[in-house]
Amino acid sequence: MDFRDTPEEAEFRAGLRAFLARELPADWSARRPHVGHHPFEQRRAWSRALFDAGYAGLTWPKEYGGGGKPYSHQAIYLEEIGRSGAPEHVGVIGLGMAGPTIMVHGTAKQKQKHLAGILSGDTIFCQGFSEPGSGSDLASVSTRAELDGDSYVVNGQKVWSSWAHVADYCILLTRSDPAERSHRGLTYFVLDMHTPGVEVRPLRQITGDPEFN
Fold first, then answer.
1. pLDDT tens digits for range 37-73
2. Cα 101 from chain centroid?
3. How many helices (H) and strands (E) does the chain have?
4. Where, residue-wise, is CATH 1.10.540.10 in the chain?
5. Quick check: helix, strand or coil at residue 74?
6. Which of 21, 79, 117, 151 has its CA 20 to 30 A from that of 33?
7. pTM higher than the cut 0.70
8. What kind of fold does domain 7-90 have according to CATH?
9. Distance, CA of 111 to CA of 101 (rounded, Å)
10. Are 48 and 121 in contact (CB under 8 A)?
11. Highest CATH level, class, for 125-192
12. Cβ atoms of residues 125 and 162 within 8 Å
């Protein structure tokens, strides 16, 4: 396999490298891009700059505001972001997980409500998967979702929820049918993080950053 850039890829890389050299604040490359090292709104502004330049959602379909690029362009993007020391887009959970799920399984209303904001960094998603008693084994989640009229009442606890302390929404995995076992009876919600009853408690890492909650 030839890993050298094609002419199109080389042109994309050169354009991205020039953008980063021009737009990345000089002192950012000297520090690791943790949430605590750059104020969140500063990170959000950087994400908006990536979006405005066409570097957010590179592989997303154009119909949803993405670039419609091949995955090789995404790989180049990650290489150059890492090389420059630039912070990642604040919408990493939305770009890589929530957005693609909504594109495939979401309603037209959900697509209209969430996708554009994910790309621009205006809407931040976190993930609500792991629990104190279940980590990688998502089929064993115990957070319950019970139907009450036209709404669901959710009770439970999640942990290691990346970006929850700054998130607007959570992609939340729950058990909605306790009679079913294993991976059956699970429901995936888009949860508004400002819903009454939602409590976020940051877990500070050794770096001092509260990226997990």
1. 557 888 899 999 999 999 999 999 999 999 999 999 9
2. 11
3. 6, 5
4. 7-90
5. helix
6. 117
7. yes
8. Butyryl-Coa Dehydrogenase, subunit A; domain 1 (1.10.540)
9. 10
10. yes
11. mainly beta
12. no
